[in-house]
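Now for a chain:

_____
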Amino acid sequence: MYPDRYEVKGDDTSLTAHASAEDEVHSEMMKTCLNELKKRGFINLRAVFENMTRPEQINEYIPDFTFKKNDKPSIFVIFEVETCSSMMGKDADKKWKAFYERAKASGGEFHLAVPKFCNGDSGRALANRRLQELSIEADLVWAVNGSLRCKGTNVPTHNERR
């Protein structure tokens, strides 16, 4: 489903199983976030999901979602869903920078959705540390909890996101 996320060489079934588990987690997070985005009434919603219109490619990457804010339709949002593993992967740095730069160039926003917890740590804190390492910012880091409900009401303020 996401060939750019994993490299499987030879007959390494453990890596294949890991990739399948990661794809399943990512898919569940996508469903949860899609439902939340629809519930919040965002407009021009595009997603790399089921039968939806795909977002436009940015450099060599396609974001998981793009949409416009319903209260500010001039604000274009690039929204990427990451698992614990994918946010720490080597591909995340290039992808996040491309999405961040496009969002800023168009006067838009870059959002990330991450698991609420990653190996006992806060997923939001891990994502923010990763963003800081890359010298970029996400306008919003969403936390998806263990029951895969998107936490968008308890979002951090700008200063808390760092």
